[in-house]
Design a protein that fits this description.
Blueprint: H1 6-15
Length: 119
């Protein structure tokens, strides 16, 4: 169960330039369309969270749990997803240009029409 609510996250994002949510449990929350620019989400639990259309540019998501998360059309440009768990996540239409995904778990990940991946 998530530690915070969507409203709590909105308040945090409104008062800090680069939100520090490292290790926080945000599982299952609707975080769609929120601006997480440069946010520290290292080791955060975002499993089953809805991050569709979220702005995650330059976000730090190292070792984050994004299993079964919805990231459709999310902007992950320059995001750090090293060692993140993206198992069964939906990245349809996401922008991954210049993002880093070393040792990320991509098992069962949906990656249709993803932008910025080398072919």
């Amino acid at each position: 169960m998530a530690e915070l609510t969507r409203q709590d996250v909105i308040k945090i994002l409104a008062v800090t330039e680069s939100a520090r949510l490292s290790g926080v449990d945000l599982s299952g929350l609707d975080l769609s369309s929120l601006n997480f620019y440069g946010a520290d989400l290292i080791r955060a639990n975002l499993s089953k969270a809805n991050l569709s259309f979220a702005y995650l540019r330059e976000a730090r998501l190292e070792e984050a749990n994004l299993s079964s998360a919805k990231l459709m059309f999310a902007n992950l440009k320059n995001a750090n997803l090293n060692e993140a768990n993206l198992e069964k996540a939906n990245l349809t239409g996401a922008n991954l240009k210049d993002s880093s995904m070393y040792h990320a778990n991509l098992t069962g990940t949906i990656m249709e029409e993803v932008k910025g991946l080398e072919k």
